[in-house]
Every structure is written in structure tokens, then in C-alpha cells.
Request: fold
Amino acid sequence: MIFESHAHYDDEAFEEDRGSLLESLREHGIDRVVNVGASLESCRTTLELMEKYPFMYGAMGVHPSETGELNEDHFKWLSEQCCKDKVVAVGEIGLDYHWKEPEEKVQKYWFERQLLLARETGLPVIIHSRDAARDTLDMMQALHAGETGGVIHCFSYTKEIAKAYLDMDYYFGIGGVITFQNAKKLKEAVAYIPLEKILLETDSPYLAPEPNRGRRNSSLNLPYVARAIAELKGITYEEVVEVTEKNAQRLFRISE
Ligand code: NI
Reply:
């Protein structure tokens, strides 16, 4: 069965049909979902979703673009949530220089704090890094993030950067972008990354794959992603689904 490693079902894009959509996932071959926090509010909603749906797990973290809202009290709350049952990662955390808000200094401060939180709680991290390849890698190496372990979500960098993360034993979240015709560098990177280090993800409601590009994304689109990876690597669709599921269970420490 397909393991969805990164979705945002708390998003308002799912306001109208969240329940029916989530309840239909299993019959479409998707048996587990990690809902990823990106702000304090989305962490709260993620906790509710986890309680309601047995197949749903959660990641607790604040996205770099949202770190302007953080203070010590919030951080303490966030830390406490990390000990809850079914919380499987700290994320999504990182650096986003595409949107220079808040300023780099603030993003870096809270990235470091959340990386250290992951280490303290023994959870892996879910990394968001956009237009910030060098700084993300520098910080992660300096803070020994290899010992914490985790996944580079929506990996969008080159084969060379992929190698640096492989050396740290990280996983790579691959989603809809792999089906885009102009994603040449990503395709090269995915051909290079061992299947044992790849997780399937959507980032729903964003980044729907071809042929649904531009529409609202959901985990139902994951077969398109798995097929694209299978084609690139010259292996079967079934193998991609099976191995990426095992990878996610290993990283998030979820038993079968
Ligand atoms: Ni995301």
C-alpha cells in the first residue's frame, strides 16, 4: 500500500470534503498519511486529525515562512506535543529564501531551535529548503543533523546536493514535480538516489502531478508519482510502492 509521507489536510482547500476524501483513501490503496504541521494552528489541527483517523500520523513544526509568530511560550507548547503518541517527526522546518519573510536571521534561529528539539525528543526531521541549499546544508552539518535523521521534503536541488544528504543518511521526499516535463535536474537526481532513500509525498493541496497539474492535489494522485519514479529507474510500479512504504515505516518508526 502507498505511504503518503507529506500532506496538509488541515488546509482550508479541504474544508468541503475532508472527511469523505480521507475516508476514501484506503480503497484507493493509500493506507497511511503523515499530516505535516507548518504553523502553530496547523499543528493543532494536525493533532485533531490524528486523533480522529487511525491511519493518520503527525509532524509538529513551524515552516520557515511562519517562524515570525514564534516565541518561547509557543516553543514550549510545540516541544510538549512532540511527546504525544503518533507524532512521528519534527517538521516542516528549514529555510525559505524564496520568500524573504521573516528575515534570514529569524528563520535560522528557529530552524536551529527546532533541529535541536528533534534531537532532544529523538524524532526525525522533515526539512523544507527553498532557494537556500548552501545555508540549509551548512547548518545541518554544523548541528550534526545526520545523527537526528530525516527527510528532505520536496527535494528540488541537484545531484551534488543529493549526494551531501545521502552522506548524512537522509531520505528524499519526491512528489508531483517529478512528473513535470521541465524537471530535468530533479529527474537526474532521482535517477541517482537509491530507491531505499525515497519517500512518496504530495504536499497536498499543492504541487499536483501531471495530468492534474494546477488543480488541488491529494494523496489520490500518488500513483502518478510512483509511476514516474518507476519509469525513471526502470523498475515496476509495485516495487516503488512497496520499497517507499518500508522506507517511511523505517524513518518514522511505524511498525507494519
Ligand atoms: Ni509541506
The beta strands are 2-7, 30-36, 56-60, 87-96, 125-130, 150-152, 171-174, 198-200. The chain has a mean pLDDT of 97. Residues 116 and 143 are 8 Å apart (CA to CA). The chain has ten helices and eight strands.
